[in-house]
C-alpha cells in the first residue's frame, strides 16, 4: 500500500521530479545535456577515458517499466552478451533492480552517471580478457 502511494505521488509529480533530476545531473556533470520530452528526461553527452571517446544516450522516466533508466553507449558497436551487463535492448545494466535499489524508492539519475563511466572501463577490460572484472550479480 505504501509503495503504491509513493509511486503514484512520484508519477503525478513527474515534471517537477524530472526538472530536479535534470538540474542535478547538469550541475554535476557538465558534459551531459537534457530536455524533457513526453514525460521522459532525454539526454546525451560525451566523455573521454584517455583518448577514447564515449557517446552516451540517456532516457529517464518514472513511466518506464521495472526501472527508470535506459542508458546506451552509442559510440560502441555493442552486441548483446549477458556477461557484459546489458539488457536485450542494449541498455546498460548498472544495478540489480531488487537488490541495489532502496525499498520503495528509485535510484536518482545523478547517482547512475559514475556507474556509466565505470561500466565503460569494465567493458574495455571485458573486450581484452573476456570476463567481467567488476562487481556483479549474475542474471
Walk me through this protein's architecture.
The chain is 34% helix and 22% strand. By secondary structure, the chain is α+β, with helices and mostly antiparallel strands. The protein has a single domain (2-129), classed as Ubiquitin Conjugating Enzyme (Roll). A four-stranded antiparallel beta sheet has the order 1-2-3-4. It is globular. The protein starts with a helix and ends in a 10-residue tail after the last helix.
Q: How would you summarize the topology of this molecule?
A:
Elements lengths: L1 H11 L1 H15 L3 E6 L2 E10 L2 E9 L8 E5 L35 H21 L10
Antiparallel strand pairs: 1-2, 2-3, 3-4
Question: Could you provide a short overview of the structure?
Answer:
The chain is 34% helix and 22% strand. It has 139 residues and is α+β, with helices and mostly antiparallel strands. A hairpin with a 2-residue loop joins strand 2 and strand 3 (52-60).
Please name the CATH architecture: Roll
Number of strands: 4
Which sequence of SSEs, written as H and E, runs from N to C? HHEEEEH
Pairing-aware structural class of the strands and helices?
Answer: alpha+beta
> Which strand order do you get reading across the main beta sheet?
1-2-3-4
- Principal-axes geometry comes out as globular
Mean pLDDT: 88
User: What portion of the residues fall into strands of 2 or more residues?
Assistant: 15-25%
Task: Please give the alpha-carbon distance between the first and last residues.
Answer: 29 Å
**What percent of residues adopt helix (DSSP H or I)?**
25-40%
